[in-house]
Sequence to fold (331 residues):
Amino acid sequence: MTNPARRRFIGIVAASSALALTSGLRRAHAAIAPTTWRGAALGADAELRLYHPDRQAAEALIARALQELRRLEGIFSLYRDDSALAILNRQGFLEDPPSDLLRLLSESRRYAALTGGLFDPTVQPLWRLYAEHFARPGADPAGPPAAAVAQALAHVSCQAVELDAQRIQMRPGMAVTLNGIAQGYITDRVTELFRNAGLARALIDMGEIRGLDPSARPIGWKVGLADPLAPEQILAQVPLANQALATSGAYGTPLDAAGRFSHLFDPRSGLARPRYRSVSVMAPTATAADALSTAFSHMPLEDTQKIVRSLGLNAWMVLPDGRLVAQAGGA
Fold:
């Protein structure tokens, strides 16, 4: 599956061109300048902002976070031949799989069940089909033939992946991508690392954004949702406090020159044309926000609203005509 960096990072931009603190937070922490790191996580632009009175301690925490990031990239990356995921896809099985890979595949099954199969990490055969089709000179702009899509779909089913502590086994022709959930998972693991170290306040962006604030009444941050029709502009601002935010948008990584097909596949039909220009989900964890923003891309509004309400989430969908629809869950 293609590099997810643009899908996530373009979809979420900072208010006023930076992930800005609210005025109240600036007053409360005027004496603490953030210790900041910027780089990449699974190919996506990433940033860490730590508010710690001891800069040396903050830098040590960032070093630990980057060590954890590189460890997880060695498990989930599709672009490293030596990653656990690449070996699984190449062999069709993996002996003694890392616990993080087992955990994330198990969580993927849970989100597949929650969304009626619209989240599925085994859509990699569809990515290969579409990518190879549009890489050919003179490729049919209507996309791959229906028969080829049906053949690829026959290899899409996360329930067909056998998970065991000793071995992961797939049927011949299957392949897994975790690009729709791994950045959220990494964001959560880094957040846990900071929390367990006693860090009071941080903003973690590992392709998905999560705010950390242990206070009873957090002040939080303002985060901007990009306008898919003009990604350099902000369509709406939303508060972020002890929550995570993820965005999926077809405009970030088109598969064809005309931008009609995207990396967001419908695991049931094999289509690569989502219902919305972008979907943003705010959830307690970045893993949930990441997976659900992916699944919601092919889900009718009445169905997304049911999940939003049942889980107490917030979601924003940009319709094809550019209108923004906001959904909020109840307690």
User: Anything to note?
Assistant: The CA atoms of residues 180 and 210 lie 16 Å apart. The longest helix spans residues 55-76. Residues 1-30 have pLDDT under 50 and may be disordered.
